[in-house]
Structures are given as structure tokens and as C-alpha cells.
């Protein structure tokens, strides 16, 4: 992996890095960075832009029910893992979250698309203001009702237009309550979206299981990049599909961030940073064996603080000797309040 980049010993991690020594009780070399560098994320490998399709559409769950509706996105047939989200708002953020790569996202909120899709504007740190990544990451979209006419001051296009531009099929006019009830009882299931064709039971074997693919390699940055802050802290982020708002939150708290590809040998450069953060991401963490190995080496050789969130937490657990299992279905929603019954808080 190190042959891809400048040797870490020379601190050529990203353009502009130079070595400076901070003399404390133990002399330590820190990475200082001049200016921001761009994120280089792979483009999803799927059919690109098509005109908006209003053909009939079929949403088929493998070994389960079939739902007939109407297309409002790209004219493209796909398969993936059907999951549901209970978020009331935030569909642009959800659909661009790299954690949803390979998944068909079913919305429980009855009406989706009423405030359209915003522009790809960036904030003062060069991060996307309204999206979690540069591309629509979900494999498909399923809603009960779609608002083709939108109204919001940030909107520049409709949800259907955006899906069509990104090559993502979308289905409306189906009973999402029945879909979610099935997924809640049976667990996340493989499914297909078929546009303009009759459902063919003989195609049931054609379902693609994204869990068998190393999805992290599809969303992780291909080269290190940097986001500066005004603070003195510098955090190394292992990008397994990091959301833009995670980077924004770190920078907003005074931490400059250097993001590395998911399989970068972080243990060789971690001593230049104040901490290591392992990001969210899609798929099965056991596919990321290089990442687990590098984290094991890091924990053996360094006392640097390490934090994992979502997939990153699972990778950290694997590195510590634990094992992971897939739950029946995940919580895909906004933060949900909880009550501590022992204290009443």
C-alpha cells in the first residue's frame, strides 16, 4: 500500500505536509498541513444518467412479496439489500450516506421529495453543505408517494430528476407499511427493482447480495486528503465511507483532519497525530482484513487514542479479538431519545 503514496517517513501524506518537532516531555513529530486537499472518492459503477422514467415498476423481495408501482427515477434494473429508514426528513443526506451503498432504501415517511434536492454547494472548509458524499450511494429508492413538485429555497431539482441523473431507479405507489412490516419480521432481505417489465419468477436467482462484496473499497478515498481547522489538534481518519458531517463536526471542534484510505497502514504514521478515528461505512466488516491487521498493529505499538463509529467500531472490535454478527435489521433513522428507567433521566 505504501507504494501508492509518498513514503510516510518523509511525511509526504498529502500535498503541503511538512515535518515540525514539538518539544514536550517526549519529542514527537507532528504533521502540519497548509490548506485543504480534495476528497477523491470512487464514482459508483452503475448505469449513468437516463431520462426520468414513469414506466410501471416492480419491487420484488426474494422469497417474499411482490409490489407493483410506478417509476420516478432512472430506467435501470437493480438488485440489492432492502432496508428501511424511519427518518421523517433528510432524504438527501440519507441517500448520499456511503453506509447505504448496495442497499435499496425504503422510506416509512409517506411523502418523500416535497422539498426537492439542493445544490452541491460547499462550506468554508470545502465540505459538501447538504450531502454526505459527492454521489447518490443507495442502489434504489422505494416510497409510498413522491412529490414531483417541490418547494424549498435550497432546491435545484426534484428527487426523481436527481435519481435519474445518478442512474438510480426509484419506485412510488407501493404499500411501504407492508414492506416494512415484512422486513421487520423477516429481517433485511435481498430485493430487486425492475422497470417496465413483467415480474419473472425465473429471475429470482439473479439477486445480488452486496454483503458478499467488499463495499468499503467502493466508497473509501483513493488517496489521502486533508481538511484544516483553526485548532492545534490533528486527527487521522480511516475513511471506510466517512460522512461529510463527521469531518465537519471534527473540524468544527478544532481538529484538523487527514483522511486515509481504509487499508492504509495507519500504524506507520499514527505517531504524527493526536488520535485515530475509524469512520462509518457499508457492508460486512470482516471483508476489511487489512484494516483489522493495521489496527491490531496500532494497538500493540501505540498509546494513541482510537475511536470507532458504526463500522469503525466493529473493525476496532475485530482488531481487539471480538467477533461480529449481523443483526436482523439495523436502526436507520435520526437520533432517538431513550429513557433510563433506573434514574428517570
3D structure, described in words:
The protein is of the alpha/beta class and 345 residues long. It has helices at 91-95, 159-166, 176-186, 216-219, 244-252, 289-301, 311-319, and strands at 18-22, 28-32, 56-61, 66-71, 78-85, 103-107, 111-112, 117-118, 140-142, 145-146, 155-157, 170-172, 189-195, 225-227, 233-239, 255-261, 275-278, 306-308. The protein has seven helices and 18 strands. The strands form five sheets. It has a seven-stranded mixed barrel with strand order 3-4-12-9-6-5-13. It has a five-stranded mixed sheet with strand order 14-16-15-17-18. The protein has a two-stranded antiparallel ribbon with strand order 1-2. The longest helix is centred in the last third of the chain and has 13 residues, at 289-301. It is globular and about 60 Å long.
The count of DSSP E runs of length 2 or more, i.e. the number of strands, is 18
Number of helical segments with 4 or more residues: 7
> Over all CA atoms, what is the radius of gyration?
22 Å
Backbone shape: globular
Helix content: 10-25%
Major sheet: 7 strands, mixed, barrel
Portion in strands: 15-25%
Q: pLDDT average, as an integer? A: 87
Task: Walk across the major sheet and give the strand order.
Answer: 3-4-12-9-6-5-13
Order of helices and strands: EEEEEHEEEEEEHEHEHEEHEEHEH
Uncertain parts: 1-32
SSE-based structural type: alpha/beta
The end-to-end span amounts to 48 Å
In short:
The chain is built from 7 helices and 18 strands.
